[in-house]
């Protein structure tokens, strides 16, 4: 994982597997960005994610919830087809602002 910040926007670029074993690093980085007081938009770049399981999904939900509670806009971008499929099967595509399984865009 790689993190960068520009003004009030923080980027977390994820790589590899997002599961119980790897989630701790993401949690630490996300919490640091969200509690630092500078971040107004948290962007999670999923382009390097090769696998996601239920614990990874739960962590993303938790980070999104923390962002919203901190009045920080949360967005997930560049989601590969495999992880996008898992997110869709879990019924979370709309929650994360991703196209639904039928390819339609999420509701505004």
Structure description:
The structure is a single chain. This protein has 108 residues and is an alpha/beta fold. The protein has one domain (2-89): STAS domain (Transcription Regulator spoIIAA), CATH 3.30.750.24. The chain has helices spanning 23-35, 54-69, 81-89, and strands at residues 2-6, 9-18, 41-52, 73-77. Strands 1-2-3-4 form a four-stranded mixed sheet. α1 (23-35) runs parallel beside α2 (54-69). The model has no long low-confidence stretch (mean pLDDT 89).
- Counting structural domains, the number is 1
Strand order of the largest sheet: 1-2-3-4
Helix content: 25-40%
Provide mean pLDDT, rounded.
Answer: 89
Q: Supply the number of helical segments.
A: 3
Question: According to CATH, what is the class?
Answer: Alpha Beta
Profile the largest sheet: 4 strands, mixed
Q: What is the overall shape?
A: globular
Beta strand count: 4
Through-space gap between termini:
29 Å
Question: H/E element string?
Answer: EEHEHEH
| Assigned CATH architecture | 2-Layer Sandwich
Rounded to the nearest angstrom, the radius of gyration is 13 Å
The fraction of residues assigned to DSSP E strands is 25-35%
Given helix and strand content, the structural type is alpha/beta
Low-confidence stretches: none
């Amino acid at each position: 994982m790689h993190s960068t910040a520009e003004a009030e926007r923080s980027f977390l670029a994820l790589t590899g597997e997002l599961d119980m074993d790897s989630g701790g690093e993401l949690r630490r980085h996300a919490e640091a960005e969200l509690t630092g007081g500078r971040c107004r938009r948290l962007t999670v770049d999923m382009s390097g994610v090769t696998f996601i399981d239920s614990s990874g999904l739960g962590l993303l939900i938790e980070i999104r919830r923390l962002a919203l509670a901190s009045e920080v806009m949360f967005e997930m971008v560049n989601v590969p087809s495999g992880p996008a499929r898992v997110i869709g099967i879990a019924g979370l595509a709309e929650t994360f602002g991703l196209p639904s399984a039928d390819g339609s865009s999420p509701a505004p």
